[in-house]
Design brief:
1 helix, Immunoglobulin-like, mainly beta, 5-stranded antiparallel sheet, 6-stranded antiparallel sheet, 269 residues
Amino acid sequence: MNKLFLYGQKLAVITLVLVFAVSCSDDDNSDISLELQPINSVTVDGYDISLESERNLETGYNTLYWKVQKDGKSVDIESFTVNPMMDMMTMEHSTPVEQPVLNPVDNDYFYNMAVFIMPSGEMGTWSIAFDIVTKTEETISGNISIEVGSSWRLTSVRDENDNVYFITWMTPEDPVMGNNELSYLVHTRETMLNFPAVSDVELIIYPYMDMGGGHGHSTDFNEPVAKGNGMYEGSINYSMSGVWTTSVKIVAENDTLPEAMFEYSVKAK
């Protein structure tokens, strides 16, 4: 993903290798396509701005795909910035987000990541403000409404000074028996508009399967280590399918924060 975000590098390698492989066997890579679903679209001054994603948006990590067209044709973009906002009636706040860059697989799309920290609902509604400058120096500004569902992939903890840390389960997206890459994102909140990545803490995890009757067991794993830009990577080898929990403790400046917990299902291969 180039400079989009460091924790997208693995996906970038996969997509770029895919492009290279296809171009080597066939100079036309037009057969490559993204499998996306529509989220919402708006029209501003004759420009159609469409937002798509690989799945319904939910709390935790999401990749957003943007298409800008006029008269059915893609528009050449000079710059593209977005700002997700949740309106809670009495206040507003943003969320961890990276800015869109051109997609290397399909140049009709820009894409970026967003970690939504709350679902839509009675508490508030989400929208994404966008500012786009075309190669012809025209400015396109507006808002697009979105729905964000709940997921098990996001939790948060607070330290004794009430600083909040958001922990996002990145991978495995669908845990299966056997060895899985394990990765988390960690962000904090400096202001209601600024949610920087945190790369200088220690994560202590413990996976556990409750077998009932006071019995249970863990499994082989490697603790996640910091890789930069809020990403922590390790591995986990699930010995059984079923319901698992993984506790996560953040150690920041020699202060161990309260335990956070993820509960999820592991599938048999």
